[in-house]
Specification:
Elements lengths: L1 E6 L5 H12 L4 E6 L6 H13 L5 E5 L16 E6 L1 H9 L8 H18 L2 E7 L10 H20 L2 E6 L2 E7 L3
Parallel strand pairs: 1-5, 1-6, 2-3, 2-4, 4-5
Antiparallel strand pairs: 6-7
Helix pairs in contact: 3-4, 3-5, 4-5
């Protein structure tokens, strides 16, 4: 089963995703795939905040900033739940890898390929992504390409997912639920 949880910055989506993954994972191992690359003090603070949030939740953390499917090498258990946090970091990492900037279509194909491999290999996959599309601001063309790419990834994830939930001010709103 795959679930996409989306929301704006500070919406409560991470906390909700952790609780949601915990509920799904009764008796099976839980993995937290962290995609953020830390470059500065603000990044360190964000990582520390997320570590504290899941401190007593028994997640096994795997740092995987690119090629998300490679994280499977570290997951030995047969049944497993995976919380992937978060798509906005993964898309940026894949798009701006080293000095090379990949095209939006390359990034979408690469990220979706990794997600599909994960989805087929785990019991539960919970993917967290950001809604960065509503501020109405016109950005530099590279940033616009990134936003467009993240939007395309989110759209593809929503189609692949069994469930899609948007978290708004801490309140989960079900957008898609297969079979119901």
């Amino acid at each position: 089963m795959m679930t996409l949880i989306i929301g704006g910055s500070g919406s409560g989506k991470s906390g909700y995703a952790e609780k949601y993954t915990d509920r799904l994972s009764d008796g099976i191992e839980k993995f937290y795939l962290a995609t953020m690359q830390v470059y500065d003090e603000e990044g360190k603070k964000k990582v520390e905040k997320h570590r504290k949030m899941r401190q007593n939740k028994h997640f096994i953390t795997i740092e995987q900033p690119v090629r998300i499917e490679d994280a499977l090498q570290e997951m030995k258990s047969r049944e497993k739940s995976v919380l992937l946090e978060c798509m906005s970091n993964l898309v940026a990492n894949e798009m701006f890898l080293k000095e090379q900037i990949k095209s939006p279509s390359e990034v979408v194909d690469s990220v979706i390929y990794g997600i599909e491999i994960l989805r087929k290999s785990v019991t539960h996959l919970v993917v967290v992504s950001n809604n960065v599309f509503e501020d109405g601001v016109r950005y530099h063309c590279m940033v616009q390409d990134y936003i467009k790419t993240l939007g395309m990834v989110n759209e593809r994830l929503a189609k692949l997912a069994d469930e899609v939930t948007e978290v708004v001010v801490g309140i989960p709103i079900m957008l898609k639920q297969e079979g119901k």
